Amino acid sequence: MLFKLAWRNLRRSVRDYSVYFVTLLVGVALFYAFNSVESQKVLFDLEHSEWFEEIQGMMNLVSGLVACVLGFLVVYANQFLIRRRKKEFGVYLTLGMAPGSVSRIVLYETMLVGLVSLAGGLLLGIGLSQGLSFVSAAIMGTTLTYFRFVFSPEALIMTVICFALVFLVVSVFNLVSVSRYRLVTLLNAGSQSQRSPVRNPWVCLAVFIASLAVLAYAYQQLIENGLLMLDDPSFARATVFMLLGSLMFFWSLAGFAVGVLTKARGVYLRGLVPFTVRQIASRVNTAFMSLWAVCVMVFFAFTIFSSGMGLLDVLVGDIFESNPYSATLRADVYWENYRDLANPSSRTPDERARKMQETDPQLYAAGMQADWQIAPQLQQAAPELWEQTVADSAQLDVYEVPGLTYESLMDALGGELLPMEVISHTDTNILAVGVTQFNRDVQMIGLPEVSLAQDECIFANNMASTQAFAQAAVDQHLQIDVCGAPLRFGDQVYRMQICDTSMPSTVLMLVVPDSAIDRLVDAGAIPNYSYLNLMYRDNGQSDVQNDEALKQILGKAQPPTPEALIEHGLSIESVESGEVSYVMEMWPVTMVVTAHEQITQSGGVKLMVTYLAIYMGVILLIATAAILAIQSLSQTVDSERRYRMLGRIGADSGMLGRSLFAQTLIYFLVPLSLAACHCACALGVLSHTLDTTLGVSILGAVLPAIELLVAIYGLYFLVTYFANRSIMAQALKA
Amino acid sequence: MAEVYATPILAEETVTVRNDARRPAPAALSVRRVTKVFGSKDSLTNALAGISFDVAEGEFISIMGPSGSGKTTLLNCVSTIDKVTTGQIFISGEDITRMRKSALAKFRRDKLGFIFQDFNLLDTLTGYENIALALTIKHVNPSSVDTRVRAVADVLGVSPVLGKYPNQMSGGQKQRIAAARALVADPQLILADEPTGALDSRSATVLLETLEMMNRDLGATIMMVTHDSFAASFSSRVLFIKDGVLFNEVRRGDCTRTEFFQRIVEVVSFLSGDAVPEGGASHVV
Question: Between B15 and A467, whose confidence is greater?
């Protein structure tokens, strides 16, 4: 009997439930889809699949947060439904139904909606996760060789458990709120009209102007100081002022707008305009905190989403350009401490060689004997494997030029500035390579060779933020001194990647005649570090197999002997498990980077960042849109009497419908507009900062973010508008 | 006294005949054999059982009757909120029973003014805006809205509270704002539903004097539904209905308000007397 009643109630108030239902449906679908990412790994080959596990771990973490957000939303939406039906409950109680039975009706209704939306959401989610497989493939830069239906029982169980918990909480809330109602207030629910605060228009005017000033100050702080350093006090100040300014804005907006509009009689005294304006004003005045929260959340969602996606381009955008070689082996010939490695600042050419002789005479002797050449060491260790795997190799020895600092170049170029993010110490020495070695590298990757006159040098550079500096050296025909010999900059900046890494990272590498390097070596210099760039042979093996072969070669050259393991603090288990197949030395090989690894990894990073951005972004947008929707619906319910009265004095349903449309639309647009201003400012600054330091534009990611926002808010707006109309139509009939 | 209780049986027929011919001056309101049946097949309630009457232009008429007599149904039908089952209602010559729903809304805002028992002001709007709304929904030129609102507020003595919100006003002030809203658009007919129902006696008197003044000085045609004899005594004619038909009518004529009040009270006490036998008035006399 009670169940039947619940079912009838539900069918009667389908429109009221629409926002609740849509939120649940989308929430469940997203929850399932993003928790089933791991199941996609069956579609990809092995090295990709590791990434799916990592992403899944991340998604599970985020899902906890998402479950809380969705739980809050469901409870919030449900409170609206209960409130709307106070009178109905009052009638049940008056008719003598036991409070327990009323609670049970509510419980059944919650369960029914829960089951229907859970089932619907899961179906939608399973569909969505099939689509995500293709998205994953596109992001990974591969295609699905075969497609098959993926289904994740774990995700299903997790979704069901999470939402069962959410409904449990909702049921408890409902039981508590139903049992707390007094009969009198239930029956009179329809005739209570809520009071909205009326604020002094002059105070509103003052606060509104002040809020604009505060926001302008926050924007100005942001524009002046940029957005890069999050711990910067001026950034914190800008944030606090932005939050404060927004709050003041929403507090005073309605009072200000009404004050201005009532003065403009020609606009104000038309049709239902006074009513519409007052409705919105009263809503904005009561709910200014929610509007503020929505604005801030949309701002963060939007900024995080688009800058995340933009940074992604920075991280993995030029992944093929950044990895022109099959593999790069790097030897950090000698360094005392990390600063020494990153910012070499020797005063004489032989400074480092002397130190190495003192601390590691054996390695120094071996290196000197081998002339610091890496390839012969590996070839000797595993001649056959080397022959099978490596087609070509070229070594690039990088020397610092003592006394030729970045600072001295900046001075010589008349204050042309280098971004501090790239070169953190201006007393760092410039690094140089010999032109013959350099040409071997460019030849290997099919770029034109460089010819230099005896007194000529050029910069090799492919990092955007230092390009202007390199060009300035060309334009001003800058003259420098390398070990006592004057060199003049030739008329080009050579764009190339000197080693495999995750992004374009050739920073102001000086290419000099071999004679200049010879002079350094004669003066006792050893390389700061060396790159050995390899090209794999076209031997019918896959990149993975060739990478494996390279590791075997290294295992022969630098075997993980017990002594070596102890010296490097490694365990014997790591060797047995295959995790470690060689140990890293100063020389000949400190580090290995292979193009295949880099490309796979970038796909994984891209996938993770993209999914996180979409998941968090969509949930935040849904949360804010649902809050706006429910508040708009609540107001329409509270205004039933007003619509009835307007209908009586002759406002036709067309007029009322238009007023309702305007109310709903403006209520949705108010927080979005301010958030849009904030976003425009923040993204403008962010885009500028990233553009100057990393040379990438994040604006490309803004468009998908806007599309997402329009889609979600559009959906919620339409659902809300139609639900509002049906509430009003019911009110007019009564 | 006998003539007081006479039932105007023949009025119906004569008026109908006159209606078919060209009428030189149409009544502000003509109700013709209106019936209204509520309920389903099993249980029918005749809220109105063929009621007919006229209200001349410039008249202030009261409708009285006991609970369940059908006076509210009558008001709803006249105010086009409810539909009649059979019969016709003419307001300044137009048959509102044949109008479409959309035309009715337009008709209401162009031809009718409303005063409700519970004021029905919009609590989010100031007094000024509440009055102005009756004009703006008629698409009156914004520049003339202001002058008309201020003029009517001046006449009804509510100028001081124009800038206030309803919850900052007294009940009497609210109802006079409502009266101003009903009057401002210059309607053919003002319909008042128990306008004094929620007012204390002093405010009620002020409001009734206001309505009387609107009728006398401004020529407003008013139809007021009330169960309060005192309120009814401010009008120029009182119609009594019972069980959905016109039972009696009393005209004020030349008598004073106190005398008129006495006569109304007599009819009311007769109407509500539980000794009334089946068959109507003639038995009692």
Answer: A467
